[in-house]
Specification:
Elements (H helix, E strand, L loop, with lengths): L8 E2 L1 H13 L4 H5 L14 E2 H15 L4 H6 L9 H7 L4 H11 L9 E6 L2 E6 L8 H18 L8 E3 L9 H7 L3 E2 L5 E6 L12 H17 L5 H13 L7 H4 L7 H10 L4 H17 L6 H7 L5 H12 L3 H10 L2
Parallel strand pairs: 5-6
Antiparallel strand pairs: 1-2, 3-4, 4-7, 5-7
Helix pairs in contact: 5-6, 9-10, 9-13, 10-13, 14-15
GO molecular function: DNA-binding transcription factor activity; transcription cis-regulatory region binding
Protein name: AraC-type DNA-binding protein
Keywords: DNA-binding, Transcription, Transcription regulation
């Protein structure tokens, strides 16, 4: 399997963290940074080059005379700074599910270097591979602080790491970092790592995002109303698929337990109904895509994620196969007809 080509960018909404931080502390961010306020792309995938992001952080740290800027800015993270993925994470049932989705869609919020999860005896780690590219220290610190801060905001309970490793050199006095993370912090390590207790995976989230849940339900209900009527079993399958899509690519193995039948029985019953799992999955995706495209709050990349695609390009290819045009073209046609 080919490896993804990392674009070395972070979202504009994430960069807005720094601008908002400066503004909150009485500074004019555009004057301090010499760059206009970052605005997300209306269509497709935008992003700010990570080296530009690093320069903005360094410039702000020098202007504020704050070597701990990454520690301070990262703590201001909120769901809106990571787009629709933030709302999807808020809608999860527990931290384990949220981290699974973060790992799957990490490139939507940090398309710089690979992040993987590593499990051990009673712990798990989030590990960043710096073998091909080394982000700047402030980029690293802001990002790791933001993850921990966001996890704490998500869960009911304490979500401190067990250990934090930075692979860049750090200050002699690590006490400000240890005070925030609540654990030992090491600099100059071989890897960039956040280690947590495995018990955290079961922590429930404080509250699902009612706006996202409502949005998904509205689109799902609209889909079900528009689809041609089938026998009750196929209708149940379509509903199960539509509810499972925002958690990733649905499979027969994932869906069949929800219908309380085996995968083999599901395939047989679909064949008897004159259809197949792949056909129904594509049908649901197509109808939901058309519904999502009518919602101006959702960018094309957000729609791809909500439909279970890990790559924006895969959704675009599939949509062209379904309709003969790109998602962007379909959205333009829809807006012109309004």
């Amino acid at each position: 399997m080919s490896q993804p080509l990392y674009r070395r960018v972070v979202p504009e909404t994430y960069v807005q963290l720094l601008y908002e931080y400066l503004e909150a502390h009485g500074h004019e961010p555009e004057s301090v940074l010499g760059q206009p306020w970052p605005t997300p792309a209306q269509e497709g995938i935008g992003g700010v080059d990570v080296e530009c992001w690093d320069r903005l952080l360094v410039t702000a740290a020098q202007a504020l005379d704050d070597p701990l800027l990454g520690l301070h800015v990262g703590q201001t993270i909120s769901a809106r700074h990571i787009g629709v993925l933030g709302s999807v994470l808020l809608a999860c049932g527990n931290l384990g599910t949220a981290l699974q989705r973060l790992e799957r869609y990490i490139r939507l919020v940090y398309d710089v270097i690979p992040m993987t999860r590593r499990d051990g005896d009673g712990w798990f780690e989030l590990v960043w591979d710096v073998s091909q590219y080394q982000p700047g220290p402030l980029v690293n610190e802001t990002g790791m602080v933001a993850i921990v801060q966001f996890c704490r905001a998500l869960v009911r309970g304490t979500a401190n790491p067990l250990r934090v490793d930075f692979n860049h050199s750090g200050p002699l006095d690590t006490s400000p970092y240890e005070a925030f993370f609540g654990c030992p912090v090491r600099f100059g390590q071989a890897e960039a790592v956040l280690r947590f207790s495995a018990q955290l995976l079961e922590l429930p989230l404080k509250s699902p995002d009612p706006a996202l849940v409502s949005l998904l339900e509205q689109h799902a209900d609209r889909l079900l109303a528009q689809l041609p009527q089938q026998d009750e079993f196929v209708e149940q399958l379509r509903k199960a698929i539509s509810h499972a899509l925002h958690e990733g690519e649905p499979s027969i193995e994932r869906i069949s337990p929800q219908l309380r039948i085996s995968s083999r029985t599901l395939q047989r019953r679909l064949k008897e109904a004159g259809t197949s799992f792949r056909h129904e999955l594509n049908l649901v995706r197509h109808e939901l895509a058309l519904s999502y495209l009518r919602d101006p709050r959702l960018q094309i990349v957000d729609i791809a994620m909500l439909l279970g695609y890990s790559e924006h390009s895969a959704f675009t290819r599939a949509f062209k196969e379904w309709s003969g045009r790109s998602p962007h073209e379909a959205r333009q046609l829809n807006s012109e007809s309004c």
